[in-house]
Q: What sequence folds into this?
């Protein structure tokens, strides 16, 4: 029984570490996609956020400032995506692919330029990372410590998700953004500035993705490495499609991914089954869940379709 | 009159804008090099001399281009049917894995061994993509999400198999055994010595041959016509009696086979064995770039694949002048963005040209 409680604690702990980066990026993706702009550049935005977070944390020693800067770096990359997709009406998938190249390329390039040709940033002091909740209250390794003594942001992300839900379904802006993704022409005829709404949403998506990346370097680990994000941005997008493009659905999907990662961390300590096979669990679960429960993806009707202002 | 129409054809085509995009990409890259206190002249000079300096570099460029021409063809072919094959990465990996396993386990003469390895890899890529197509067609599951899942499944599957006892090389680090010589597609020793490129292999012939074959399929067969019709307007194609679902499956299958072959030529030619992956290899994602620069045309993919191969090969030498090789990613990212907005340039130039003519 005791070992069950301990394992449960470890599982919750691992889930709480794995979920926030995915969830932040997925919430960002919801904004962009629901406003009608496909954003597969999330991966690159997370990477630049992770890099910026690591560098600012290292230099300033302030975890929260670093986290914010990570978000801003993601937003800066999103500005390019927004201009190219909204103003110049480029193919959004192509633009997103380019953003991924730029995000990862720039991060590693700058890391090498700043840190003597090393693609990793130097590890930072624990005090420079994001703060933890209830630090020192529970004995280390206890159930309480595993569940409650985690990074403050690991709990706050769920509040962010609730906030996103509120914005989506309870505010005028949320109503406009959803309408822009379904029928921009109708929106415009009602006096909504479609471009403005989409700009805000795409830049917000970059900000949240950048924050998600920064969580990885400022909480999960303590430095930037080129392989630190690989795939998480794409999994966040998968979670959004899985969650039917709503913040609530995306949150549940991210929790599922985070939980599977938690199981993976736990089981791989046993060393009985090949870690490579265990690592497949989240992906197999997703595919099965899609086949059995979710089915047809209902993307916003105008998603990916460039919109031309009529005046 | 005739002269003008040539000018107009240049303005209406894609080539001019691709060249402009590449120039802009290099200019922006130079800005970043300046920021990093690296002389763009030195870095680009090294890049150029690493590509054009000696004839043997040309052959290395071609060898680097092989897998990405094939993944480029894969992405380009699916684009024509209106599907974005972001899963070329996974299809490449299962192709490479299948070629490795067959290359190690079978002991048959080369005349049988090589075709079996290639066909096996193509079949693996075909299957990996076809399943995603089935999930899309039968259950309406968004292909982008399943492609991403299948990329990671392929990644871990490959690492699992590489570490199996029958495949893993004893004390040989994190890689498989070497493939048998009978599965190797390297050119004869004499050719490799003459060109100075020890990894020069038949893969480049295969890649170019398949590009031509795909061009014929797309431009000269009813299959290609149907696929394009579905890509252009699915509802209209359906109304005209084309089975859209079947077309999607065919396109995805062929697309996957190309990426699988990309994996095979890399193993049977350059690699000789399969290493455990630390991160995704990236050949599939680079294929997206190759397809975009090549304007989704098979022949265009040959040219853009060689261009990208040159950038990768030249980029790998940049550490010698202390410039990060990632400058290549930055340049390529900018190139894609400018190509993405090339419609804007096109409208601008065509507008200017018409105005000039109206004035004259």
A:
């Amino acid at each position: 029984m005791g070992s069950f409680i301990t394992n449960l604690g470890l599982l919750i702990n691992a889930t709480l570490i794995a979920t926030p980066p995915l969830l932040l990026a997925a919430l960002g993706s919801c904004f962009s996609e629901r406003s009608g702009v496909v954003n597969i550049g999330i991966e690159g935005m997370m990477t630049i956020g992770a890099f910026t977070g690591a560098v600012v944390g290292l230099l300033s020693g302030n975890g929260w400032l670093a986290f914010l800067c990570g978000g801003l770096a993601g937003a800066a990359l999103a500005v390019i995506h927004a201009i190219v997709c909204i103003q110049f009406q480029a193919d959004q998938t192509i633009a997103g692919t380019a953003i991924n190249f730029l995000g990862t390329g720039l991060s590693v390039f700058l890391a090498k330029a700043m840190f003597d040709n090393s693609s990793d940033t130097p590890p930072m002091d624990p005090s420079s990372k994001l703060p933890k909740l209830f630090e020192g209250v529970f004995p280390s390794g206890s159930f309480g410590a595993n569940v409650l003594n985690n990074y403050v942001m690991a709990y706050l992300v769920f509040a962010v998700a609730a906030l996103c839900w509120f914005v989506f379904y309870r505010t005028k802006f949320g109503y406009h953004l959803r309408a822009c993704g379904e029928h921009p022409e109708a929106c415009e005829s009602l006096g909504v500035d479609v471009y403005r709404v989409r700009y805000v949403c795409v830049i917000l998506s970059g900000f949240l993705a950048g924050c998600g990346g920064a969580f990885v370097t400022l909480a999960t680990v303590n430095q930037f490495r080129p392989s630190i994000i690989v795939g998480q941005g794409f999994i966040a997008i998968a979670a959004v499609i899985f969650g039917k493009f709503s913040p609530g659905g995306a949150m549940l999907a991210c929790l599922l991914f985070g939980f599977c990662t938690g199981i993976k961390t736990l089981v791989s300590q046993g060393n009985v089954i090949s870690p490579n096979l265990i690592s497949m669990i989240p992906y197999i679960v997703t595919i099965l869940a899609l086949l059995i429960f979710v089915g047809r993806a209902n993307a916003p009707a105008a998603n990916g379709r460039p919109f031309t202002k009529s005046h | 009159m005739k002269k003008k129409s040539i000018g107009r054809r240049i303005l209406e085509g894609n080539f001019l804008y691709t060249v402009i995009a590449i120039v802009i990409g290099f200019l922006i890259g130079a800005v970043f090099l300046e920021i990093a206190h690296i002389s763009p002249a030195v870095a680009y000079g090294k890049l150029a001399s690493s590509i054009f300096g000696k004839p043997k570099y040309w052959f290395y460029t071609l060898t680097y281009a092989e897998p990405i021409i094939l993944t480029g063809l894969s992405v380009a072919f699916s684009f024509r049917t209106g599907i974005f094959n972001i899963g070329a990465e996974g299809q490449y990996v299962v192709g490479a894995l299948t070629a490795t396993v067959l290359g190690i386990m079978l002991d048959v003469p080369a005349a049988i061994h090589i075709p079996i390895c290639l066909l096996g890899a193509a079949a693996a890529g075909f299957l990996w993509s076809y399943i995603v197509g089935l999930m899309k067609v039968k259950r309406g599951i968004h292909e982008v999400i399943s492609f991403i899942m299948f990329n990671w499944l392929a990644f871990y599957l490959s690492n699992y198999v590489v570490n199996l006892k029958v495949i893993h090389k004893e004390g040989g680090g994190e890689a498989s055994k070497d493939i048998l010589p009978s599965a190797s597609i390297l050119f004869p020793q004499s050719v490799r010595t003459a060109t100075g490129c020890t990894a020069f292999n038949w893969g480049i012939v295969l890649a170019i041959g398949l590009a031509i074959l795909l061009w014929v399929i797309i431009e000269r067969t009813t299959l290609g016509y149907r696929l394009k019709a579905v890509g252009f307007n699915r509802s209209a194609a359906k109304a005209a009696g084309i089975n859209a679902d079947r077309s999607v499956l065919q396109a995805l299958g062929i697309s996957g086979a190309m990426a699988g072959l990309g994996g095979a030529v890399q193993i049977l030619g350059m690699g000789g064995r399969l290493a455990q992956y630390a991160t995704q290899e990236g050949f599939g994602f680079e294929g997206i770039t190759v397809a975009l620069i090549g304007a989704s045309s098979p022949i265009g993919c040959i040219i853009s694949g060689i261009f990208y191969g040159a950038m990768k090969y030249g980029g790998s030498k940049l550490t010698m002048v202390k410039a990060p090789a990632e400058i290549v990613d930055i340049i390529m990212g900018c190139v894609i963005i400018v190509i993405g907005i090339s419609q804007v340039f096109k409208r601008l130039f065509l507008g200017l040209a018409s105005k000039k003519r109206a004035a004259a």
